[in-house]
Amino acid sequence: MKKDRKKFWENNNKNFCKNVVEILRSCELPKDWKTYVVVSNFLSDKEILPFDYNSWSNVNLVAATKKQGFEIMVFINRSRAEFLSRPAIVPLILHEIQHIRQAANNPKKFISATLNDEVAKSFEEDAEKHIRFLSDEFRKEAVLESVLYCYDIGSWNYASKMANFFYKERENIYSGGYDKDMTDSEFNLFQKAKREKKINLFIDYFCASLLGGKKYV
């Protein structure tokens, strides 16, 4: 991570669709439902960055009747995640998989979430709960890669926006119900690295934690 990361980002981008499919295949999806996966970017007059509001992914109910069939579409936003490695995108994909299950289990309530913030929040809380069983190394990997990628494309300005998104904004975006993605100590360490203009302080902290932590489950 301290060396030239360009090839790392390029390889992740190249393998992104494959990684998404492999994670989906490893999970149990609702029976008797067709699940379509779209991996793309929104058309926009400006580049959408990983910390932007419009970087979200989403699950949509396409149809839920005997005549029309039972179909769900999941959209994975490349703008937010295409630079991440497979371990780093696991939390994002598993979050959306839980939304797929929610839609299949109760289509009417799932549709109502688009019109009701409290219902939407409850679905987000449920989706977050279902990824807490993961080793914390997945979250740490996603934070490290996301902040470093933003640093590489926009220096401290973009890295700060990514860190602020994780620490200050994510839990309250959209309907709410999301977990904060950076701990106090992680965010404070980032601030120290920024003050001293030493990104390696941030890298060393996370790498030591990842190497010293549990193996991926």
User: Could you spell the SSE succession in H and E letters?
Assistant: HEEEHHHHHHH
Using only CA atoms, what is the Rg?
18 Å
User: How would you write the strand order of the largest sheet?
Assistant: 1-3-2
Shape: globular
Whole-number count of domains: 1
Give the N-terminus to C-terminus distance in angstroms: 22 Å
- Output mean pLDDT: 93
Biggest sheet record:
3 strands, mixed
Question: Which runs of at least 5 residues are low in confidence (pLDDT < 50)?
Answer: 213-217
Beta-strand residue percentage: 5-15%
Sheet/helix structural class: mainly alpha
Helix content: 55-70%
Number of helical stretches of at least 4 residues:
8
Q: Tally the beta strands.
A: 3
In short:
The chain is mainly α and 217 residues long. It has helices at 6-25, 78-81, 86-105, 107-112, 117-129, 136-169, 184-196, 199-212, and strands spanning 34-40, 58-65, 69-77. It has a 3-stranded mixed beta sheet with strand order 1-3-2.
How would you characterize the overall build of this protein?
By secondary structure, the chain is mostly helical. The protein has one domain (6-212). 57% of the residues lie in helices and 11% in strands. It is built from eight helices and three strands; from the N terminus they run αβββααααααα. It has helices spanning 6-25, 78-81, 86-105, 107-112, 117-129, 136-169, 184-196, 199-212; strands at residues 34-40, 58-65, 69-77. The protein has a three-stranded mixed beta sheet with strand order 1-3-2. α1 runs parallel beside α3 (86-105), α3 packs across α6 (136-169) and α6 crosses α7. The radius of gyration is 18 Å and the shape is globular.
